[in-house]
Every structure is written in C-alpha cells, then in structure tokens.
Amino acid sequence: MIPAQFDYARPASLDEACQALASDEDAKVLAGGQSLLPLLRMRLAYPSTLVDVGRLPDLRGVHDRGDHVFIGAMTTHDEVVRSEVVTAGCPLVALATAMVADRAIRHRGTFGGSLAHADPAGDLPAVVLALDAVLVARSASGEREIPAAGFFVDYLESALEPGEILTGVKIPKLGAGWGFHYEKFHRTAQSWAIVGVAAAVKRSNGAITEARIGLTNMGEKPLRARATEAALRGVELGDQVRLACEEAAADTSPPADLHAQPDYRRHLARVLTHRAVRTAAGSP
Fold first, then answer.
1. Rounded to whole angstroms, how far apart are CA atoms 229 and 197?
2. For 126-145, what is the mean pLDDT?
3. CO dehydrogenase flavoprotein C-terminal domain spans which residues (predicted)?
4. Contact 204, 116 (CB under 8 A)
5. Which residues pair with 172 in a beta bridge?
6. Domains of the chain, earliest start first
7. Residue 233 near residue 210, CB atoms below 8 Å
8. Exposure letters 37-73 (e unless 16+ CB within 10 A, then b)
9. Are strands 68-72 and 134-139 parallel, antiparallel or unpaired?
C-alpha cells in the first residue's frame, strides 16, 4: 500500500521540532521509522505532517550520570548494545536490546522510538518497567519526567501528550548483588515476542531479597508480575522459586492471535519467568 499524503518537516533543533509539533496536532514524530513506516504503508496511521528528528544530535548518545544511565531517544538499538556504559550500568537493557528483531532493524530502530510506540509485544517496554526507569519528554512549554509505571497507558498508547517528544530515558543503576536476564519466546528473529520476561533479582546469603519482573505481550500494555515478585521475597533457589513463578500470569489479560491463545501465553509466562529468575539469580 501507498501511505496517505502528508507534509514533511526536518527541524534543525529540538526547539524547532517542538514548535512543529505544537503547530499541528495531527503531526507525528519520525525517528528510526521501523514501527511508524509499516503503519503508514498499511494506512493505519494518518499523520498530516511527519517531523523527522533523525538528525538532531541532542537526542542521541549514552551518558553515565552517576546513579543512573541516560539513553538519548534517538540512540539506535545497535549503539545501545555496543555501549560499555549500558553493559556496566544497566546490563538488562543490553541483554534485551540485543534480542530486538534482527541486525538490520537494530541499526535503524531507536531506543526511544520503541518505547514511544508503546507496543506491549515490544521487548523494551517491559524492561524499563521492571527497572523503574524514568522517561523524559519535551514540548514547546517545557520538559517533564514520566515514571515508566505511568508511561504505558494502553495498546499503542503512551502518556506522551500532543506536541511532546520523548528525548531520553533515565535508567537507575541497581548496584551490587543484582542479576539480570531477559527470556523471550518468538517464532523468528524478526518476529515480535509471543511472550517475554525481563527479570532483575537481588540475592543475599543465598536467598532472594528482591525481584523485579516485567512481562511482554501479556496484556494491553507491559506489566509487572507483582504476585511473583512478592512470592519470591526471602525464597532460596529450588522448588520454592518454581512455585512462586506459577503466579507470573496472575492479573494478566494476554491476547489471542494467530500465534498463541491466552492459555498458552499464560503457560509461557510461568515457564519463562522461572527460567529468567533462575538465570538472573545465578542458578544453572
């Protein structure tokens, strides 16, 4: 299909981009285009103007800011994967980003674009949710910070308001004692996750003291497996971990599609959560 007609703007600065969005409520931001362009071709999106922010240097780069890592929204997945700052400060992000689609898409797709698209089948929303990241948005009226827990509103809907641009993400460093893993079940490298699990686990004296678990494609938006997180607290590795992970699908509403029915996705969530938690906790 051919996209519907639209105007095209390439601002020279972030301020110009914000002004372009403020002047047209039906405008859309074009970043890497890996999510937006297919929607345009299928005529599932009808922006009056595309505001191309691909050449704004202010939106690109990875920065160590002490207690957190800041990833610019236009930083490509490949740049995130290869960043020593990300690998050292927030390894779960590096693990999950390395599993996004294939190499070609990782070279074009952007970290911020994947989050702003707010697809619950995407790998990264569950990761930033599990890590309690903070997303930074900019508009003509100023800047604001949005906790990941409030950023994903519904299917393909984020908390970004008309005229706002996602400029970057603050990812807290969890420090010593934490282990991480991302487990994903999908048909091919290019496919969306049928189910994915992002796990961060902290252990002390052989027992789990805290667990954070984000679920991919288990509802209209990424979810935290709160019941399993609570059940894992104080548990030593063994059968108790498996029993705690049986609660991973609690309070979820997984979709039904050509790839899987809800019951199968619930089963996958339990199995993958167990694998992710055991791996993150350092158990073979």
1. 13
2. 97
3. 180-280
4. no
5. 68
6. 7-52 (3.30.43.10), 60-172 (3.30.465.10), 179-280 (3.30.390.50)
7. yes
8. eebbeeeebebebbbbbeebebbbebeeeeebbbbbb
9. unpaired
